[in-house]
Amino acid sequence: MAKTIHSMIRVLDEARSTAFYARTLGLDVAERLDFDTFTLIYLSNAESEFELELTVNKGREEPYDLGTGYGHLAVSVADLDAEHSRITALGLNPGKIVEFNRDGALLARFFFITDPDGYKIEILQRHGRFK
Is 31 a residue of the active site? Predict the structure, then answer.
């Protein structure tokens, strides 16, 4: 059986991105691997073994074209309202909290934030399948 271990995104500025993910999602650098033309930074926290891999291609100055294929990264939190307030206080302008219902029952409560490179992140209330 396969086990999901990480997802990789390309970022322009290592310091800006690691600071963003530490402040918003509590992800800290688990490992940093520097190579001649690129750097890999693995971010994680105690909530999950899953890691976010940031790839910084050295010498790149233009933002990446995210295209139409990328959707979002999703994380779950115990208290969505508190996280929304905390992220708002950081000045990061999260989207509004959305309640998504199906057949009269709550399916999900969530909001989105955008990282410094334009990647969307969905913050979900832990509920149902979103543990």
Answer: no
